[in-house]
Amino acid sequence: MPELLTILLMLAAGWFWLDGMRARESAVALAKRVCSGDGVQLLDDTVAVASVRLGRQGGGGLQIRRTYRFEFSDTGDNRRPGTIVMLGHQIETVYLEPRPPIPDE
After folding, report:
1. What's the distance, CA 24 to chain centroid?
2. pLDDT at 105 over 90
3. Distance CA 69, CA 81 (A)
4. What distance in Å separates the CA atoms of residue 11 and residue 59, rounded to the nearest whole number?
5. Sorting pLDDT into bands at 50, 70 and 90, what band is 2?
6. pLDDT tens digits, residue range 29-55?
7. What is the spatial distance between Cα 55 and Cα 95, in angstroms, rounded to a whole number?
């Protein structure tokens, strides 16, 4: 019986890892699209996991809520933060830190 429990735990850990990799790939693609659409550069072409929690979807079911952080640049010589929150594999929110207005010359 302990062997079965060990196998089930290993399978669950493997599923969690694979699901996290798929969600991360989606977050990277989304960050690239958002940055490109906003005319800024996604730095390092990657996102980093900031938190993993359980969250409720609209129907009340539990899903994994992952928050990813990334950095972008609007001038090429600065770094500004952005975040993506995904509930399961659905996008919940995307945030790019507001950029200061360009002064008139």
Report:
1. 6
2. no
3. 7
4. 27
5. confident
6. 999 999 999 999 999 999 999 999 999
7. 19
Q: Please name which of 64, 19, 70 lies closest in space to residue 49, comparing C-alpha atoms.
A: 70
Q: Name the residue among 41, 97, 36 with its Cα closest to residue 69.
A: 97
Three-class SS state of 32: helix
3-state secondary structure (DSSP) of residue 88: coil
Structure tokens at 67: 């928050």
Of 47, 83, 91, the residue nearest 65 (C-alpha): 91
The first and second tokens of residue 13, run together, are 């850990």
Domain boundaries of the chain, sorted by first residue: 2-96
CA angle 19/81/55 to nearest 5° reads 35
Task: Give which of 102, 47, 52 is closest to 74, Cα–Cα.
Answer: 102
Instruction: Give Dmax over CA atoms of the chain in angstroms.
Output: 75
What confidence tier does 74 reach under pLDDT thresholds 50, 70, 90?
confident
